[in-house]
């Protein structure tokens, strides 16, 4: 049985962080280093969302893909993320990568990720250099997500689909690849507990972007890939 919906993840207790684990070295966070790592990945083990470690769902997960867009800014790489609108059926209000369910016309997960990115935030495929992908990530809500990693070269124009996307923002890659910012939080319910990653990032105007769940899990896996 899948755990119940978590309505206020930011209020749940932190049971541990990655404090003390090494950050990804700056030399591995350049465009060429990322190209090389994705082209020739070392042996590594996904830590979150791997099909073999997710509780068996009572149905077959639906195929989906997301783009992990790494923006090549002069001051350093950033990760482009969205905040979903509150009225959506799945993952309402959550911080997400651009992406979604595969459609019949999509020939590959890359096609899905690029199409969804264009539809959701107006990111043109010509601005994206796809450099590889990570293992599929299975969510508790019933999606088998292919994370497609792409480098995005500025300048580019973005236009949010206001039905799906409430906000578009960027987070420095070195912040996300520092495990001191990787929290494990726990949700206890009647028949067990659910643990999940969270990576809160301060908003410039106050408050925070609460990155958690599948998005944080895929970022944690990206950390594991880059650290291996």
Automatic annotation (TrEMBL):
Obligatory cofactor(s): Mn(2+); Mg(2+)
Domain Nudix hydrolase: 61-197
Single annotated GO MF: metal ion binding
Record keywords: Hydrolase, Magnesium, Manganese, Metal-binding
Tree of life domain: Bacteria
Annotated protein name in UniProt: DNA mismatch repair protein MutT
Organism annotation: Pandoraea terrae
Source organism phylogeny: Bacteria, Pseudomonadati, Pseudomonadota, Betaproteobacteria, Burkholderiales
